[in-house]
Every structure is written in C-alpha cells, then in structure tokens.
Amino acid sequence: xxxxxxxxxxxxxxxxxxxxxxxxxxxxxxxxxxxxxxxxxxxxxxxxxxxxxxxxxxxxxxxxxxxxxxxxxxxxxxxxxxxxxxxxxxxxxxxxxxxxxxxxxxxxxxxxxxxxxxxxxxxxxxxxxxxxxxxxxxxxxxxxxxxxxxxxxxxxxxxxxxxxxxxxxxxxxxxxxxxxxxxxxxxxxxxxxxxxxxxxxxxxxxxxxxxxxxxx
Length: 216
Ligand code: AP5
Ligand code: MG
Ligand code: ZN
Hints:
Layout: E1 2-6, H1 13-24, E2 28-30, H2 31-41, H3 44-53, H4 61-72, E3 81-84, H5 90-102, E4 109-114, H6 117-125, E5 127-130, E6 136-138, E7 157-158, H7 165-179, H8 181-188, E8 192-196, H9 201-212
Parallel strand pairs: 1-3, 1-4, 2-3, 4-8
Antiparallel strand pairs: 5-6, 5-7
Bound molecules: BIS(adenosine)-5'-pentaphosphate, magnesium ion and zinc ion.
The site of zinc ion (ZN) has 8 residues, from loops.
C-alpha cells in the first residue's frame, strides 16, 4: 500500500501515521522528521535545512526531493510506504510521479486531514515530543501519564522550535500558498480522500482505516 498523508501543520499527520504504519507494516517517511534528524546530527544537509525549518519556511525542492528519492529505494519500501508531509509543492508532486513511474509503482491513496486554523494553533503550541523515541503528545488533548515524560520509553519531552505562535503563522501561510494547491492535483487523479481531522484521535484513525480498507 502506497499512501500519502496531507494536511496543514498540526492536522495530525504524524500522530495518525504512527498508528497506521504499525497496523499496515509499512515504513513511515516524514520529511520533517528527516530534516530534524539531520539538523540534530549537524550534517551539511541539516545545516542547510535549518535555515528554512527554523523560520517555518519550506526547504527548497531539490534538497527535499533528493531525500525522498533515496529513501523510497530502500528495501523496506518494497511492501509500501506512508509519506507524511511530502509532497508539499507541485514540483515535488511531479517529481514523486516520476520517481514512482521509474520504479513501476503507483500511489494507492492520498488522505487529506481537514482541520480548522484556530484548532491547528492550539494543537501546535501544546505539542510535546519524546526526545528518545519521537512519540507525540499534547499537554491538553493527549497528555502523558507523567508530566514531561514519555509513556512508552520514559524519555524526556520537548517542544519543537517551530511550534511558537509566530512560526506557526508562517507555516500555515506556506501551507496555503504552496501546498493546498496539491489537493486539486490529486483530486483530478481521483486519489484524494478527505478525512475529518477534528475528531478525537481514535475516531480519525478508524475513519482512515475504513478508507484504506475500501470500506468508506
Ligand atoms: P513537518 O514536521 O512535516 O511539520 P508540519 O507539516 O508543520 O506538520 P506537523 O508535524 O507540525 O503536524 P502533524 O500534522 O504531524 O501533527 P501531529 O500529529 O504532530 O515539517 C516541519 C518543517 O520541515 C516544515 O515547516 C519545513 O520547513 C520542512 N519540511 C518538511 N517537509 C517538507 C517538504 N516536503 N518540503 C519542504 N519543506 C519541508 O499533531 C499535532 C498536535 O496535535 C500533537 O500535539 C498531537 O498530540 C495533537 N493531536 C493530533 N491529532 C489530534 C486529535 N485528533 N485531537 C486532538 N489533538 C490531536
Ligand atoms: Mg508531523
Ligand atoms: Zn519515548
């Protein structure tokens, strides 16, 4: 199963991806996670990406497309993949089409998680992430059992540097200007399915599951 999760910052792509990949046994490919890992390690790509990520701007297409192209050729993608946060521009979408054609593969589903702007702001400013395993929490909507500590691995929780009100504003503008046009692109290809991302986390997961299993 070859899947894309789309949706604005804070829509729940990462939260839902964690659940769906464990059920379908496919790798979770998040370009945002890849950039944050490279930034932490201080690689040349990470240093370049940081200039953009820290400002809430999209990283240039050539860097982003290169990462995904390499990742999709790894062995664990043979049974499928879940792309989270890629593509985000029409150029990236066209490049993905070419990459998949070259591999004689095609997309099965593009799922758009729909969430209103006010709710996105609340979700992002309250988000906390585990330093050790990357699990995602929310101080109000999905709190850990022990404050500041991960339920799964007891790792320490931190706040992403781009989850401030100001940076979230820039990220939402980037989404509207550059990424939202992709919805029409996938609609024309009859791949796009809308899911109401404003429901509780479990309800969103079951709606996505129904779409992926062809029951909705
Ligand atoms: P990326 O890491 O992809 O960030 P994003 O798209 O802004 O999305 P988020 O990860 O912020 O949100 P999410 O939808 O995953 O929500 P989550 O599940 O965590 O990208 C970061 C940066 O990298 C970009 O700004 C850009 O610079 C660069 N980049 C990445 N990809 C790129 C690309 N393709 N091209 C160019 N640049 C790129 O949930 C959010 C919060 O809400 C959590 O606290 C969660 O617990 C809570 N929550 C989730 N679901 C629910 C629910 N149903 N009810 C209540 N709370 C919920
Ligand atoms: Mg995410
Ligand atoms: Zn953890």
